[in-house]
Amino acid sequence: MRRPRYTRYALRLEPPAGARPPAAPAPAASAPGGADPDDDWSGVGTPGSRPEAALEYRHPGVVPEILTLQPAGWQEEDDGDTLVFWLEEGAEAEPGVAEKLSAIGALGRLEVSRQAPGWEDAWRRFHTPREIGRLYVRPPWYPPRDDLLDIVVEAGLAFGTGGHASTRQCLEEIQSIPSGSLLDLGSGSGVVSFAALRLGFSPVWGIDIDPVAVHAAAGNAARNGLAPTFMVGDATDQGYPLPAAEVVVANIALRPILRLATRWRGEGAQGAQPPAHILLAGLLVTQEDEAVAAFPGYRVAGRRDDGTWLTVHLVRLS
To answer: In the chain, at which residue ranges do the beta strands (DSSP E only) sit?
Structure first.
């Protein structure tokens, strides 16, 4: 059978204004779909315009535009200032694709070339498995390991493959928490939800503000043979109903974490039982005091940081 041919697209972007050195990601000017970036907590955009508020990608506002094309693969190069993606040859003639490519090209300089055979193998070598405590997070082309709990994530099609520090910290810390019901906020690719199920947590819910991420998470759930419940919504909205869970993982950055805190105290509690454990992630180490102070009914039971990114484990006092 004839193997499909692919076209390689390289979108070259200018470093964001006021960006830190290349190792640090920088914020997008706006969130996709015209959303207010101050209200975005999915990893797609960034809250506010401060460099310290950035999430996973150097150009996070551009990434979802590429993902709408459902590329065969994509990755960051040049410290995140070049986004490379592959489409099957001829896809540009499909309805709507040319318009999307034109819109993406307007964001920077889009270079197009026919891809030589074998690019898939090189791309797959770019994405490698990660051993995180008892967990083994891998792309589907690597085999499972008998000695670790297996989690399969299709690399590059959603947010969270275990590579970012905040995701790794969440995966490490939930292994220290007694199993029970769990709510994964900012669920992205679903990797934390899958890890929770593998570790014995049940039921598990995942909520993300981005429907593209939720769609990708559902596909990853099928690959893992797992059945968490994924939902689209803004968990920081007081009117959005949250499932009652014993454990909440909130990998959603500082500003939405501060809004989330009101849901379990004072004006926003509305009789809801606060979770026994909360993991606050997507934070910088300099934001710890402000985040912890927003949860006065909790004490710090654990923390993980890599010098830049921080995850805090809170336990309810009563």
So the answer is: 6-12, 73-77, 82-88, 109-114, 130-132, 135-138, 149-152, 182-185, 204-208, 229-232, 247-251, 277-284, 298-305, 309-316
For residues 123 and 141, what is the distance between their CA atoms, to the nearest angstrom? Answer: 11
4: which residues sit within 8 A by CB, 6+ positions away?
A: 88, 89
- Give the mean pLDDT of 58-73: 82
For residues 141, 146, 148, 154, the Cα torsion angle rounded to the nearest 10 degrees is: 20
Residue ranges, comma separated, of all CATH 3.40.50.150 domains in the chain are 127-316
* pTM of the predicted model as reported, rounded to 2 decimal places: 0.71
39 within 8 A of 7, measured Cβ to Cβ: no
Domain covering 127-316 assigned CATH 3.40.50.150 in the classification: yes
Instruction: Check residues 246 and 272 and name the one with the higher pLDDT.
Output: 246
- Confidence (pLDDT) at 160: 52
